[in-house]
């Protein structure tokens, strides 16, 4: 990123911090702006064509492309509002279509094997993901002050706080003993979300990722309650449509439907 980009990008990122955006969000915006900077030497020359070239990377998944589009649009709106751009070229960007996702809960046998290989810290990380449904960034920032009795106050996307009851005594005792960050590190005193993801990925084989632990939590929670709204609150979703992508329909429900259809 050259000096011209650095000047405007830093001013924009400062505006995000001033608006109370979370550090993880600010870092995500900075990441995508660096990629956009590869397509034009000066942000004051951003055009629709520049944005479309930046978004046309063949290696991006639809969700990644949608996230990048959101960042580019936010930056262009800010540039236009500040008078640095005569018009906002992002207004002409086509929406990014994201195919409906399917839940991919990690199999119990794979999870148990990973727990058996994990050290104490890694075990706590896996349990927070698989049993608590926490995202990597939320796991990284677990702090003793956020635990009240056996309920963990979790600040997730958009700075929204949700309550996650912890039924694992192992987790409750570990958080209390920590007397601060559960996972100390170099990112504001705690581990980074990226490092948490790396630790989990080392223990999980093949295509099973840290996020499939959240899918496992959502699927098991729904199987035990059949309450999609409660599962959504547990996972920190604002829309039930999002929760549906985290829940694999229980086999007994499918069999009941099949029996009813054949009756």
Automatic annotation (TrEMBL):
PROSITE patterns linked: CB, TYR_RECOMBINASE
SUPFAM superfamilies: DNA breaking-rejoining enzymes (SSF56349)
A GO term for molecular function: DNA binding
Domain Tyr recombinase: start-end pairs: 93-259
Residue span, Core-binding (CB) domain: 3-80
Protein keywords: DNA recombination, DNA-binding
Origin superkingdom: Bacteria
GO biological process entries: DNA integration; DNA recombination
Protein name: Tyrosine-type recombinase/integrase
Source species of the chain: Cellulosimicrobium sp. ES-005
């Amino acid at each position: 990123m050259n000096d011209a980009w650095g000047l405007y990008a830093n001013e924009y990122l400062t505006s995000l911090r001033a608006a109370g955006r979370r550090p993880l969000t600010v870092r995500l915006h900075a990441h995508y702006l660096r990629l956009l900077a590869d397509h034009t030497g000066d942000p004051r020359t951003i055009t629709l064509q520049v944005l479309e070239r930046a978004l046309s990377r063949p290696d991006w998944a639809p969700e990644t492309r949608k996230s990048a589009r959101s960042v580019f649009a936010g930056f262009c709106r800010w540039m236009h509002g500040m008078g640095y751009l005569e018009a906002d070229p992002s207004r002409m960007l086509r929406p990014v279509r994201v195919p409906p996702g399917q839940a991919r809960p990690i199999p119990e046998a794979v999870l148990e094997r990973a727990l058996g290989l994990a050290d104490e810290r890694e075990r706590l990380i896996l349990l927070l993901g698989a049993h608590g449904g926490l995202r990597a960034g939320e796991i990284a920032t677990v702090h003793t002050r956020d635990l009240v009795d056996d309920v963990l106050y979790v600040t997730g996307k958009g700075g929204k706080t949700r309550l996650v009851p912890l039924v694992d005594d192992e987790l409750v005792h570990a958080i209390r003993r920590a007397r601060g960050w559960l996972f100390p590190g170099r990112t504001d005193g705690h581990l980074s979300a990226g490092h948490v993801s790396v630790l989990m990925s080392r223990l999980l084989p093949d295509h099973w990722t840290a996020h499939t632990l959240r899918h496992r939590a959502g699927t098991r929670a729904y199987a035990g309650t059949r309450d999609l709204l409660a599962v959504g609150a547990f996972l920190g979703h604002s829309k039930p449509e999002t929760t549906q992508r985290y829940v694999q329909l229980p086999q007994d429900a499918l069999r009941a439907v099949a029996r009813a259809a054949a009756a």
